[in-house]
TrEMBL record:
PANTHER family: ATP PHOSPHORIBOSYLTRANSFERASE (PTHR21403:SF8), ATP PHOSPHORIBOSYLTRANSFERASE ATP-PRTASE (PTHR21403). Heteromultimer composed of HisG and HisZ subunits. The lineage of its organism: Bacteria, Bacillati, Bacillota, Bacilli, Bacillales. Residues 58-205 form the ATP phosphoribosyltransferase catalytic domain. It is found in: Cytoplasm. The keyword Aminoacyl-tRNA synthetase does not apply. Catalyzes the condensation of ATP and 5-phosphoribose 1-diphosphate to form N'-(5'-phosphoribosyl)-ATP (PR-ATP). Has a crucial role in the pathway because the rate of histidine biosynthesis seems to be controlled primarily by regulation of HisG enzymatic activity. It catalyses: 1-(5-phospho-beta-D-ribosyl)-ATP + diphosphate = 5-phospho-alpha-D-ribose 1-diphosphate + ATP. Its main location: cytoplasm. Belongs to the ATP phosphoribosyltransferase family. Short subfamily. Its EC number is 2.4.2.17. GO terms for cellular component: cytoplasm. One of its GO terms (biological process) is L-histidine biosynthetic process. This is ATP phosphoribosyltransferase. The gene is hisG.
Amino acid sequence: MSVNEEFITIALSKGRLLSETLQILRASGINIPLDLESSRELYFELSEQNLRFILVKSVDILLFLEKGIADLGVVGSDLLSEKGEGFIDILDLKIGQCELCVCAKPGINIRDVKSVASKYPVITKKYFDQQYHDIEVIHLNGSVEIAPVLNMADCIVEIVQSGKTLVKNGLIVYEKIEKISAKMVKRKKSLYEKEKQINDFLANFNNYFYNINVSSKL
């Protein structure tokens, strides 16, 4: 890249995906400091590669993209399904894999459900409207599993990875809505003057991913 080019800004989740995301970026040739995870830095630049990284909460990444602060972002496909209409899904990084599921106490008939608690009100309403009937969606930001335990909701729609939290709260999976993984995304409306620069970066990154996938199958 030319030193005269602008920085490409990439928003990363500072949560559970960060370590795996940084491993992929480093393996693709990006010189990310090895001590980044322990440094507590939320912003850093790689001037020799014209790259800038910002570390934010996963739920805020799409907002940073929408406002034009970031050019690219790594975000869970659950957030894209919930509020990602203005963004392009570029590449599945195949990390942070889990499932979005309908969960409830044993013995519940999902067809009789009237209220559902979830961090994903849009996905939840759409799913039940299409599969069953209109329901009340109770929007919670965390500790969703407690809602059926306290009879706040008949069931929940939540991310399931190991299932341990469900078991501890006496819940089981009834239906799987969609598989979730981390995606590299960008805005549908990118800044024209940076479009070629962004596309060149993505072409190199995609090529790296293609090569490692081919190698893994040999």
